[in-house]
Specification:
about 200 residues, alpha+beta, 2 domains, three-stranded antiparallel beta sheet, two-stranded antiparallel sheet, 7 strands, about 15% strand
Length: about 200
């Protein structure tokens, strides 16, 4: 089945009608030579594998201790969500909601959305509302800011290291790896390939 797609060149805005681009091949603009589509091999399998890995890391990052503070013989453990609760208890509701949104809710929705789309897609049965979920994932990209949270955490560790003993938990390392996994999966998604495969299998 030969499906055609309308695509505009991001460099010169020339409109093209593209057919199916084989895996590993590229389609270039006939005017300026810019790459319109680069069909990556095993794109669906790679996306699904990264999404499953991301879900495992997400669970670890939110279940296990994030940091432990030892001061004058007293040890206090914190998790990601306990930090959100702490901000809320200090009447910093807006900051607490923003941290919850950008470091917990948005990454979780992205991961679950990817699993919802690509798990059935790999078995040749696209899930209902896949296009709507795919568009939602794309729109949520700017709101996933775990790297900003991690940077703030590292700055805090440096500042507090002189007054307390800080022990990093497994959650911190899981979150660090999760940032790279989510970055890889979001940058590796091929919208053209998704729309082609969804239209073919529906």
């Amino acid at each position: 089945m030969n499906l055609s797609t309308i695509a505009a060149c991001h460099e010169c805005d020339l409109i093209h009608r593209l057919g199916t681009v084989p895996d590993g091949k590229m389609a270039k603009c006939s005017r300026c030579g810019a790459i319109l589509v680069h069909a990556k091999s095993n794109n669906d399998e790679r996306t699904l594998a990264l999404a499953v890995t991301g879900l495992i890391l997400f669970v670890i990052a939110n279940v296990f201790p994030f940091l432990s503070f030892s001061l004058e013989g007293q040890v206090r453990q914190t998790t990601l969500l306990s930090g959100v609760v702490g901000l809320y208890d200090q009447d910093l509701w807006a900051v607490s909601g923003l941290v919850l949104l950008t470091t917990f809710l948005v990454p979780l929705v992205q991961i679950m959305g990817l699993l919802y789309i690509f798990l059935p897609l790999n078995f040749g049965k696209p899930a209902a509302f896949s296009p709507a979920v795919f568009r939602m994932i794309e729109k949520l990209r700017p709101w996933s800011m775990m790297e900003v949270f991690m940077l703030g955490t590292l700055v805090s560790i440096v500042k507090l290291s002189d007054s307390a003993t800080i022990i990093t938990g497994v959650s911190l390392y899981a979150l660090l790896i999760l940032i790279f996994v989510l970055t890889a999966v979001m940058t590796g998604i091929d919208p053209y390939h998704f729309w082609q495969k969804w239209a073919y299998q529906r």
